[in-house]
Design goal:
Radius of gyration: 35 Å
Strand content: under 5%
Number of strands: 0
Helix content: 55-70%
Length: about 140
């Protein structure tokens, strides 16, 4: 294969008039050469509209993964809490973990995932309320 350098473009002969000598079979209609047709309105691309709308809502593509990990950690903390109760140990560490995880709750925008995370969070809130009630009763007696 032979590679050649850039070729020169032939010189221009100047501007040609619209009605002049065009190729055979080509001609511009007289009215369209002089009259301009109104152009259709410019419409933004749908993907751009979507991106701008998501930016306005504070879209974070990693939120879903973060919340799924938080849900898994909450389930682990609930399991550790159950083990601590069965062992008769004080569940202080699990309680602190649950309380910290409850502070990072965000909506993901995925209805299925949000529903599961809501159920996990309700269970965690119930367990935290039980621990709080147990602490209050212990200090009263």
């Amino acid at each position: 294969m032979k590679i050649e350098g850039p070729r020169s473009v032939g010189g221009s002969t100047g501007a040609r008039k619209a009605g002049g000598s065009a190729g055979a079979g080509f001609s511009l209609p007289a009215e369209s050469a002089t009259a301009s047709t109104p152009s259709a309105g410019v419409r933004a691309a749908a993907p751009l509209d979507t991106i701008l709308a998501l930016q306005g809502q504070g879209f974070d593509p990693q939120r879903r993964g973060r919340q799924a990990r938080r849900g898994g950690k909450t389930l682990d903390a609930l399991e550790a809490l159950a083990r601590a109760h069965l062992d008769g140990a004080a569940p202080h560490a699990a309680r602190l973990t649950l309380a910290a995880l409850q502070k990072d709750v965000e909506r993901t925008g995925d209805p299925g995932l949000d529903s599961v995370l809501d159920e996990i969070d309700v269970r965690a809130a119930v367990e935290l309320a039980k621990l709080e009630m147990a602490d209050r009763n212990r200090f009263r007696s």
